[in-house]
Amino acid sequence: MDFSNTLGEISSNLSNMSASLEEKINQLEKAKTEIIEEQKTSLTEIENILKPELEDLWKGNRAKTFQGSRKDAYKEIKEITENDYDEYVNAIEMLIISLNAQKSVLYGLSVAAHGAEKLLSKGEEAFEEIGNTINYIKGELSK
Q: Where do the coiled-coil regions begin and end (predicted)?
């Protein structure tokens, strides 16, 4: 069995998987930042829904209906901006935590692979231990 090639493949796979997770984390961080910026902008801009104040200028049922619709729209948009955006950010943060945990597992497996590579220099007396380490890493990767 060629442990050196196997360990090389494992290290390469772990590196690729880690890079992929890092890319996903970066994309999520960017999305989170954009959502937070959009929320700040929206909270400022929704105040314009109620402008100009029309109660002194408009009278009658149509004015009341229009003003009621404007206030309802304001309440709905404010609810979305204050609550839904926070839910999106929280969901993204939980996903980032999960991906970072996966990255930590991959790092641990990389350390184990590196340890197995060091064992290769010890010769045949370490082959059983190397085989056990490789099987462990493969088992963890297949989960």
A: 11-41
Q: Which domain holds residue 36?
A: 3-141
Q: Are 6 and 56 in contact (CB under 8 A)?
A: no
- Is the CB of residue 116 less than 8 Å from the CB of residue 130? yes
Per the CB < 8 A criterion, the answer to whether 82 and 43 are in contact is yes
pTM: 0.76
In the chain, the number of structural domains is 1
Top-confidence residue, 56 or 137: 137
Share of the chain above pLDDT 90, in %: 50
| 106 vs 14: CA distance, rounded Å | 6
Residue from 125, 129, 44 nearest 82 by CA: 44
